[in-house]
Amino acid sequence: MSAFKEIAPTEIKENPFELIGNDWALVTSGTADKFNTMTVSWGGVGIMWGKPVTFTFIRPQRYTFEFTENNDYFSMSFFNEEQRDALKFCGSKSGRDFDKVKETGLTPAFTENGVPYFEEAKLVLICKKMYLQFLNEESVTDTKSVNKWYDNDYHKMYISEIVTALIKN
């Protein structure tokens, strides 16, 4: 029996500001043979083009970027506080240099179509990319607030449909 049950994205009870901004998430993309994960604390959820979506931002120098670019799907795994050290590790170390699964003890799982996520998560969003675009200096209207985060290395934004939401049973 699976440790998760599928729910509609509209049934998610947690506050998205808490989930993303305070609890953080692991964005994971790739295949069962090769995948990478990284911690995110920026992003959002909402409705776009009549669908429930995530807004995810990844810098091009991150190892997870190439996996996200080369796959149509990725997951966002949200955890309880017990996994804070794993999230810190995955946000500060590169999968190019470390086996994040081995280092954190997280247990990878895979959807029927092979999207990786983690068994220890309390909530998992399986996302299908719909739109992507690099943020850019020309589009910034509040330079004081925004440009302090960048040195010509703007994130790429992914607007992705939430195709599946899984919560821990």
Keyword list:
single chain; 169 residues; alpha+beta; Pnp Oxidase, Chain A; 8-stranded antiparallel β-sheet; two-stranded antiparallel ribbon; 5 helices; globular
- Apparent shape: globular
User: How many separate structural domains?
Assistant: 1
What summary fits the major beta sheet?
A: 8 strands, antiparallel
Number-wise, the strands total 10
* Tally of contiguous helical segments: 5
| Chain-averaged pLDDT | 96
Would you state the CATH class? Mainly Beta
- Uncertain runs: none
Q: From the alpha carbons, calculate the radius of gyration and give it in angstroms.
A: 15 Å
* Estimated share of beta-strand residues: 35-45%
The CATH architecture name reads Roll
Provide structural commentary.
This protein is an alpha+beta fold and 169 residues long. The chain has one domain (4-168): Roll (Pnp Oxidase, Chain A). The chain has 5 helices and 10 strands, in the order βαββββαβααβββαβ. Strands 1, 2, 3, 4, 5, 6, 9 and 10 form an 8-stranded antiparallel β-sheet that branches. Strands 7-8 form a two-stranded antiparallel sheet. A hairpin with a 5-residue loop joins β7 and β8 (116-118). The model has no long low-confidence stretch (mean pLDDT 96).
